[in-house]
Design goal:
The protein has helices spanning 44-67, 77-85, 133-139, 155-183, 213-227, 229-233, 253-264, 283-297, 309-312, 326-339, 361-364, 380-390, 402-407, 414-430, 438-450, 460-479, 514-524, 526-535, 543-558, 592-619, 621-634, 639-645; strands spanning 73-74, 89-95, 98-109, 116-124, 143-144, 195-197, 242-247, 268-272, 301-306, 347-353, 369-375, 486-490, 500-503, 636-638, 661-662. It is an alpha/beta fold and 667 residues long. It has four domains: 73-151, Signal recognition particle alu RNA binding heterodimer, srp9/1 (2-Layer Sandwich), CATH 3.30.720; 191-375, Rossmann fold, CATH 3.40.50.300; 383-450, Helicase, Ruva Protein, domain 3, CATH 1.10.8; 460-577 and 590-662, Peptidase M41 (Methane Monooxygenase Hydroxylase, Chain G, domain 1, Up-down Bundle). Strand 8, helix 8 (283-297) and strand 9 form a beta-alpha-beta unit.
Length: 667
C-alpha cells in the first residue's frame, strides 16, 4: 500500500492524486489564499537585535569598569627610593622591573594642588646600576611579598562573568518566546497530551476483537476508506468525520478504536476527554487545537477521545460566571475543529462514551459524530470467542470447556471475561497447577460474582438463621415458574454477606415480562419470609433484598407501564439521569399526586409478592427444613445437591433468563 502520508514539496503532475487536499478545489490547484495581513510591528525583530546589542555593550563597559586593576599612584623610582630611605614604605610586590606597594603615609604626586594622593603606588626600577635596594628594604623592615603584582581581572573572566548572566537571561526569554509562539499564549500548558501509537508498534487488529461482530462490521467501511480513499472520492462519497462508540463499560470500545487504527495502518492519537480540562481558562481549547494540528500533519490518522461525556455534555445545564466555563470552551473548540476541516478528510475522530444520551446535540449532528455504533454485551457465542482470545497465552487443561464457561457467564462483557481468565490463572498458580483447570475457572467465577470467602466464626444460632434465610431464596427459585435455576447455595460468609444463593439462566434473554419480574421479587423476599415463618421474627439480613425488590417494582410501575393505576406512561427518569425525565426534552417532572400513586403501586406489588412467598414456603415447610439441614451439614451445595436436598429429582429447565446475580445475600 502506498504511503499516503508522503506529500511532495512541489506541485504534483495532473495524473497524481492528492486525496486529502481536494475539498472545494480542482485537481492540482492550490486553494487561494486570502489577503495577507500586515504585521502589527514590522520592525519588531530588528528593534530587538538593536536593544540586545546595546545591552551587551553596556554590560561590557560596566564589566571593565568594575573588574579592572585597583587604582594606584604612579611615582618615579627616585621618589620610591627616597620613601624607602625615610621608612615610609610598608610592603612591596615585584615582577621583573615592575614594583607595586603601599606607603605607610599617603604621598601626593606631583607635589602641589594638581597632584593625587594615594597610599598605593607603582613604579619601574631601571635596569642599569646597582643601588643596593634589596639591602635597603631589609634594613627598613619593608615586607617583600611573594605573590605577583596586580594585573587586573583576566579578559576571559571579564567575558564570562560580565556576559554570562546576560546571555542566560536572553536565552531564557528567547526560549519562552518560541514556546509561546508554538503553543499559543499558554505555552506548554496548551500542548495536547495525546499518546500516539504507530501501526508498527503495539499493533492491534480485528483479530484481537471478538464477540462484537455487529460493531466491528460498522467500522470496516472506515478502515476501507483510510486504505483506499480514491474509491470513495471518485464517486463523490465522503466518510463520516466522526464515529461515536457507545456501550456499557468494558464492552471493548477502546479496543475497537485501536483495531481500526491497526487495520488501516495509520497513526492513532489516544486521549481521555478529562485531560483537556485544566484550572487555567483556555487550556482545554488550546489542547484541542494542538491535537487536531498533530493529526492533520500525520494524516491519514485517527483521533480517539475516550469518555467523551466528560466534556461533551449538553450545554446550558449549569450556571457559571458569564454563562461560559472552561468545559464549554473546550466543547466549542471540538465542534469547530470537527466542522472546520479544510480538506483534511484523512483525520477521523472516534469517540467513546457510556452515556450517549447526555451528549450535546451539536456533537451528534451530521458532519460531526454523524455515525453511532452501539457496542452491546456479547451473547453466549460471543463470550466463547472472547474467552478464546484471552486464553491464547493461558495453558488450559483438558477438562476446560470454554463453551460451558461462556454459558455460565451471561451478562458479562469483555473486561469481565478477561478478569475471569486472569483470576483463574492466578488460582491455578496458587495451587501449583501447570495448567488452568475447570475447577480453577469455577472458583474464580464464584470469587468474582459472590465475593471472597471471609474467615469469621458464626454462632450456632446465627448460622442456623442464615441457613434458613438462604434456603428460602433457593426454594422459591425452584418453585416459582420461570425463575432462573439455582446454581449454588452457601452459608460461607463472602464479601459483606453471611450467605449467598447464586442463580443464573440457561441462555441469554433481552426482554422480561411482568410474571418473570414478579417472580424475581418473590424469590428475593424468600429469605425474609423464611425467617418470619421459622422464627416469627426478622433481622437486618434482608437489607439488600429490600433494595433490590424496591428498584424492580419501581421500574415496573414508573418506566415499563406494568401498572394499570399509573398506565402506559413513563414517570421516572432513566438510571443515572435523575435531573430530568428525558435528556434533551422539555418534559416536566411528575406531579406530587403521580409520585404518590407510584409509591402506592410499588407497595402493592411488593405486598402481593411477599404474601405469595409466605404461602409457597408454608406449603413447602418440609422442603425448607430439609434444605436448611443440608446446608448446615455441608455449608455449600451445588445445583444437583441443592435440588436433591429440596426433594426434587432433577433441576427444572428454566423458562426465563437473567444475567448472573447472587439473589440478595444476607448481610
Amino acid at each position: 500500500m502506498p504511503d499516503m502520508r508522503q506529500r511532495p514539496a512541489r506541485q504534483q503532475a495532473d495524473g497524481d492524486r492528492r486525496p486529502w487536499r481536494v475539498e472545494g478545489h480542482p485537481e492540482g490547484e492550490a486553494p487561494e489564499r486570502g489577503p495577507q495581513r500586515t504585521p502589527m510591528f514590522p520592525s519588531a525583530g530588528r528593534r530587538f537585535w538593536w536593544v540586545l546589542l546595546a545591552l551587551f555593550a553596556l554590560n561590557f563597559i560596566l564589566s571593565l569598569a568594575l573588574s579592572g586593576k585597583a587604582e594606584r599612584l604612579t611615582v618615579p623610582y627616585t621618589l620610591f627610593y627616597r620613601q624607602v630611605q625615610q621608612g615610609n614604605v610598608r610592603e612591596i610586590s615585584s615582577k621583573g622591573d615592575e614594583i607595586q606597594g603601599t606607603f605607610r603615609i599617603a604621598v601626593r604626586y606631583p607635589p602641589g594642588k594638581g597632584g593625587k594622593s594615594n597610599a598605593k603606588f607603582q613604579t619601574v626600577r631601571p635596569t642599569f646600576g646597582d643601588d643596593g635596594l634589596s639591602k635597603l628594604l631589609i634594613a627598613k623592615n619593608v615586607t617583600v611579598n611573594a605573590h605577583a603584582v596586580d594585573t587586573g581581572t583576566p579578559l576571559w573572566q571579564t567575558i564570562v562573568f560580565g556576559f554570562g548572566p546576560t546571555l542566560l537571561l536572553v536565552g531564557l526569554f528567547v526560549a519562552l518566546a518560541r514556546r509561546s509562539s508554538a503553543g499559543g499564549m499558554l505555552g506548554s500548558f496548551g500542548r495536547a497530551g495525546a499518546r500516539r501509537y504507530e501501526h508498527s508498534a503495539q499493533r492491534t487488529t480485528f483479530k484481537d476483537v471478538a464477540g462484537i461482530d455487529e460493531a466491528e462490521d460498522e467500522l470496516v467501511e472506515v478502515v476501507d476508506f483510510l486504505r483506499n480513499p480514491d474509491r470513495y472520492l471518485r464517486v463523490g462519497g465522503a466518510i463520516p468525520k466522526g464515529v461515536l462508540l457507545a456501550g456499557l463499560p468494558g464492552t471493548g470500545k477502546t479496543l475497537l478504536a485501536r483495531a481500526v487504527a491497526g487495520e488501516a495502518d495509520v497513526p492513532f492519537f489516544s486521549i481521555s476527554a478529562s485531560e483537556f480540562i485544566e484550572a487555567i481558562v483556555g487550556v482545554g481549547a488550546s489542547r484541542v487545537r494542538d491535537l487536531f494540528n498533530q493529526a492533520k500533519q500525520a494524516a491519514p490518522a485517527i483521533i480517539f477521545i475516550d469518555e467523551l461525556d466528560a466534556i461533551g455534555r449538553a450545554r446550558g445545564g449549569g450556571v457559571s460566571l458569564g454563562g461560559h466555563d472552561e468545559r464549554e470552551q473546550t466543547l466549542n473548540q471540538i465542534l469547530t475543529e470537527m466542522d472546520g476541516f479544510t480538506g483534511s478528510e484523512g483525520v477521523i475522530v472516534l469517540g467513546a462514551t457510556n452515556r450517549p444520551e447526555v451528549l450535546d446535540t451539536a456533537l451528534l449532528r451530521p458532519g460531526r459524530f454523524d455515525r453511532r455504533v452501539f457496542v452491546n454485551p456479547p451473547d453466549r457465542e460471543g463470550r466463547r470467542k472472547i474467552l478464546e482470545v484471552h486464553t491464547r497465552s493461558v495453558p488450559l487443561a483438558d477438562d476446560v470447556d470454554l463453551g460451558q464457561v461462556a454459558s455460565s457467564t451471561p451478562g458479562m462483557v469483555g473486561a469481565d471475561l478477561r478478569n475471569l481468565v486472569n483470576e483463574a490463572a492466578l488460582t491455578a498458580a496458587r495451587r501449583n497447577h501447570d495448567r488452568v483447570t475447570a475447577a480453577d475457572f469455577s472458583d474464580a467465577l464464584e470469587k468474582i460474582v459472590l465475593g471472597t470467602e471471609r474467615r469469621i466464626t458464626l454462632s450456632p444460632g446465627e448460622r442456623e438463621r442464615t441457613a434458613y434465610h438462604e434456603s428460602g431464596h433457593a426454594l422459591l427459585g425452584m418453585l416459582v415458574p420461570g425463575a432462573d435455576p439455582v446454581r449454588k447455595v452457601s452459608i460461607i460468609p463472602r464479601g459483606q454477606a453471611l450467605g449467598v444463593t447464586f442463580q443464573s439462566p440457561e441462555s441469554d434473554r433481552y426482554g422480561y415480562d411482568a410474571d418473570y419480574l414478579r417472580g424475581r421479587i418473590v424469590g428475593a423476599l424468600g429469605g425474609r419470609a423464611a425467617e418470619e415463618i421459622v422464627y416469627d421474627d426478622v433481622t437486618t439480613g434482608a437489607e439488600s433484598d429490600l433494595e433490590q425488590i424496591t428498584n424492580i417494582a419501581r421500574q415496573m410501575v414508573g418506566r415499563w407501564g406494568m401498572s394499570d393505576a399509573v398506565g402506559l406512561v413513563s414517570v421516572l427518569p432513566r438510571p443515572g439521569n435523575e435531573q430530568a425525565l428525558f435528556p434533551g426534552a422539555d418534559s416536566r417532572a411528575p406531579s406530587e399526586s403521580t409520585r404518590e400513586l407510584v409509591d402506592a403501586e410499588v407497595r402493592r406489588i411488593v405486598d402481593e409478592c411477599y404474601a405469595r412467598a409466605l404461602d409457597l414456603l408454608r406449603e413447602n415447610r418440609e422442603r425448607l427444613a430439609s434444605l436448611a439441614k443440608a446446608l448446615l451439614a455441608n455449608e455449600t451445595l451445588d445445583e444437583r445437591d441443592a435440588y436433591a436436598a429440596a426433594g426434587f429429582e432433577r433441576p427444572r429447565e428454566a423458562a426465563a433468563d437473567q444475567p448472573p446475580v447472587p439473589v440478595s445475600p444476607q448481610s
